[in-house]
Amino acid sequence: MRRAWPGLLGAVLLVLLVLGLTGDPLATDTRDVLRPPSTGHLLGTDELGRDVLARLAHGALATLGTAGAALAVSAVVGLAVGAATGWRGGRGAAVGRALVDVAAAVPPLLVALVAGLVAGPGRTTLLLAMVAVGWLPFARQADALTAALRTRQWVLAHRALGAGTARIWTRSLLPELLPTAGSLALLRVPALVNTVAALGFLGLGTPPPAPEWGAMIAASVDHLGAAPWLLAAPVVALVAVQTLVSALPRDDGS
C-alpha cells in the first residue's frame, strides 16, 4: 500500500487535470461568485465566478511548464560548461570554478526578482532569470565528474588509440554524466516550481488574467474567510507535486 499511494495520488491529479483542461479558465459568471465546491464546480469558483478547477489545471501548464523549461535549459547549459572546464583543467578551469562558486551563492529568487523588476513581468523574463542561476549546480556537478573521469584508464586508452574529444565525450563521458544530471534535475524540480509560484505570487510571473498557481494564491488572500478553497486548491497542488517528485525512484535506491 505504501508503494501504491504515489500512483494513486498521481492518477487522481491526472483525472483532475484532464477535467480542468476541458473548462475555460477565463470565463466569468457574476451569478456564481465565490461558490463553494459542488458538482457543477468541483473546486468552487473565484471572486469573478471563474471555475477554480479550470484555472488550476491551466495554471499547471504555466507553472510546471515554466519550471520544466528552465530546468531543461539549465541542465544543458550547465552540463556543457561544467564538462568543458572539467575536461580542460588548469588555471583557466580553476578561475571558472571560482566564478561559478561565487555566482552559486546568489539566491535564485533574488535574481528573478531583479530581472522581473527591470524587464517587467512575463514568462520569458522569468524563464531567463531562472536559467541565469539554474545552470550553476549542473555545471559544478559536471565539472567535478568530468575532472575525475578524464584521468580514468579507459579514457586514456581512447586517447592513446587516437579517438577525438568529440568521440570520447559522446561515447564515454556523456553516458556517465547524464544519469547523475538526471538525478540532480529531479531533486531541483520542487525548488523550481516553488520559485515560479513565489514570483507569480509577487506579480512577476505570467500577467493576469492568465491562470498561474502563485497568482491564484495571491488573489485568494482577500477571500480567506469567505472562500478558503481558493487558497487550498493551489497550495494542495504544490504540495502534491513535491510529494510525487519525492516518491520517484532515484539512482541512490530511495
TrEMBL record:
The chain crosses the membrane at residues 60-87, 99-120, 126-149, 185-206, 226-248. It is a multi-pass membrane protein. Keywords: Cell membrane, Membrane, Transmembrane, Transmembrane helix, Transport. It is found in: Cell membrane. Its main location: membrane. This is ABC transporter permease. Belongs to the binding-protein-dependent transport system permease family. CDD domains: TM_PBP2 (cd06261). InterPro entries: BP-dependent_transpt_permease, MetI-like, MetI-like_sf. It comes from the Bacteria. Residues 60-249 form the ABC transmembrane type-1 domain.
